[in-house]
Amino acid sequence: MNSEYDSISLSLLSQYYFCPRRAGLIMLEQVWEDNEYTVSGTMEHENVHNEHIEKRGEQAKIYDMYVSSEKLGVSGMCDCVEAQLDENGAYIPALDGKYNLFPIEYKHGTVRNETEYNAQLCAQAMCMEEMFGCKIKNGAIFYITAHRRVDVQFNDSLRNMVTEGIKALQNIRDKMRVPKPEYSAKCQKCSIAEICCPKIKSSALDYMKSIVNDCCRTEE
User: Fold this and answer.
1) What beta strand segments (E) does the chain contain?
2) pLDDT score at 43
3) What is the pTM of this model?
4) Bigger pLDDT: 156 vs 112
5) Which residues have C-beta within 8 Å of that of residue 212, sequence separation ≥ 6?
């Protein structure tokens, strides 16, 4: 049974699919540095991260909603959950009625298809399915800069990605081992690149591997 203390943060799932090493550094070493991208994203999120409910007729919006899953071992916040009154929907205590739920994750920047965003959103839906005994088929990523939202289908492939990602994060946590660096184009925009030093560490690792391989060949 997973306790709140043991649960993985939903935001780490997005970090993991962006870069496993980044997720490991944040989770195990509490590493974090802001850059122009993170600061801009935080500023755009300020209006979202304010827990409240807006209700108009048969529709409601729940902002900064806490969700968790004991089965998955994760917990975190949803930027926004749209709820539509439906007698066949799930009972939502905060709204004192039955509703269909539609999670929305707010992201900075222009419209793009990012696997890590989709996985985080799907994980939120899976948490709510466990909490309220419902089925959520889709949600959306809202790109604040572009002021557009993109629909995300919670198919079996994406759901499997969520469970696999959470297991990988739990493995990193339990073994207390940060994944090895793998330099890519993403590193150029990473706020903790100077701490991670992916190029230097990758070169060092390659060098050490070459020494070991040379020693093995010499012994043969």
Assistant:
1) 8-9, 52-56, 59-69, 74-92, 97-107, 138-143, 148-153
2) 47
3) 0.80
4) 156
5) none
